[in-house]
Design a protein that fits this description.
Number of helices: 12
Largest sheet: 4 strands, mixed
Radius of gyration: 21 Å
Strand content: 5-15%
Distance between the termini: 26 Å
Order of helices and strands: HHEHEHEHEHEEEHHEEHHHEH
Bound molecules: pyridoxal-5'-phosphate
Number of strands: 10
Length: about 375
């Protein structure tokens, strides 16, 4: 993917074999490789401390999975939603947000996103609720921007609707709450990367237990019988070992990413009339650095490619343009129902953003950008 470019869009930042060795030695001595082994348990309890709970919220429980996608599917599957339940999802997201809903047996209901923060906000969900009924909501931490925990906690408390957050790219930045369930990804392309893996963080300990059982075929308690129809979505000990090694170096990873972000902020300042960065309520370091080029995404991609710089159209096309998902917007006029997404789809472009970029790289990206804008 993009090997021919001088400047790569994304370079995974994982622990070295040396970093992993102590954990692998432990695994080898214990001869325990999956099924909620000691490393997996330790990783979950370290993550519990790592993901702070907003305000005076309750203790959250952590369950590990093979991916964020299976963590989302687990949460949706064990919520107790009625058959055929409708789940509100944003139009601008990675397809797994919608496929998790479909695979759990429910119906995704599409909602346009906020023009500045590019996400499905609690405010937009309240508006949507006036237009159409739904049974649950899946806000997304778009490009790693944390969702507003207090706003969503209020939404869940007031409406009684479950809120399952696709926070796949936001581990290390997204806080937990009192009513919302969070799913994180540990995929190689995420800032906190382990290779593959996912986490569910929830204030509901019973839901956590059902989700764990779901990840292990549906087994619950002794006796070797299943009490629900689950699947196999357990995190193995190799991944937990890598996760523990990654936790130990996270502050270093994040401070290098923060420095690159700072370089971009400075270098992009002269272009602030032509482009917009993703707005947010507080400071955050994006997982993927996406700019709004006001309809010029294709032109920017072409210019940067000519200069040896790899870009990506992250989260595009919108959900309703994926061949497998077009039926979700059957009969809907996109420009009427999803005006913001229709504008963003020709405007958003993902620039190179990873911890290995140098000052010269960032300068090169920005001068290539100014040549076209
Ligand atoms: C990466 C990503 C996913 C998928 O995560 P996996 O762990 O690879 O399943 C889902 N949703 C969003 C928003 C993502 O960025």
């Amino acid at each position: 993917m993009g090997e021919d470019y001088k400047i790569q869009c994304l370079v995974p930042d994982l622990p070295s074999p040396q970093d992993m060795l102590p954990f692998l030695e432990e695994m080898h001595s214990a001869r325990w490789y999956s099924n909620f082994g000691p490393l997996c348990k330790r990783f979950e309890s370290e993550i519990e401390k790592f993901v702070p709970v907003m305000g005076n919220g309750p203790r959250n429980t952590v369950v590990s999975f093979t991916s964020a996608t299976t963590a989302l599917e687990a949460a949706l599957s064990v919520l107790g939603l009625r058959p055929g339940a409708r789940v509100l999802v944003p139009t601008l997201t990675f397809p797994a947000t919608a496929t998790a809903v479909l695979n759990a047996g429910f119906i995704p209901v599409l909602c346009d996103v906020d023009a500045e923060q590019w996400d499905l906000s609690a405010e937009l969900a309240r508006e949507a609720l006036k237009q159409t009924p739904f049974d649950a909501v899946m806000p997304v931490a778009v490009y790693g921007k944390p969702i507003d925990v207090l706003a969503w906690d209020d939404f869940a408390a007031e409406t009684g609707l479950p809120v399952v957050v696709d926070a796949a790219a936001a581990l290390g930045q997204q806080k937990a709450g009192s009513h919302i369930h969070l799913a994180f990804s540990l995929h190689a392309t995420k800032p906190f990367s382990v290779g593959e893996g996912g986490l569910l963080v929830t204030p509901d300990a019973n839901l956590a237990e059902r989700a764990r059982s779901w990840s292990n075929f549906g087994f619950a308690g002794p006796g070797g019988v299943i009490s629900q129809v689950g699947t196999n979505a357990k995190m193995g000990e190799f991944y937990a070992a890598t996760g523990l090694a990654q936790l130990a170096r996270w502050n270093d990873v994040q401070s290098r990413r923060a420095k690159v972000m700072e370089m971009y902020r400075e270098a992009l300042a002269p272009l602030s009339n032509a482009i917009q960065m993703q707005a947010a309520d507080g400071e955050f370091i994006p997982a993927t650095f996406v700019l709004n080029t006001n309809g010029r995404a294709q032109a920017v991609a072409k210019q940067l490619a000519q200069d040896g710089i790899h870009t990506r159209f992250w989260y595009l096309p919108p959900l309703y343009e994926h061949p497998a998902l077009v039926s979700l917007a059957d009969g809907l006029d996109h420009s009427v129902c999803f005006p913001v997404t229709e504008q963003l789809k020709t405007s958003l472009i993902g620039l190179p953003f990873h911890a290995f970029l140098t000052q010269e790289d960032v300068q090169l990206v920005c001068s290539s950008l100014s040549a076209v804008l």
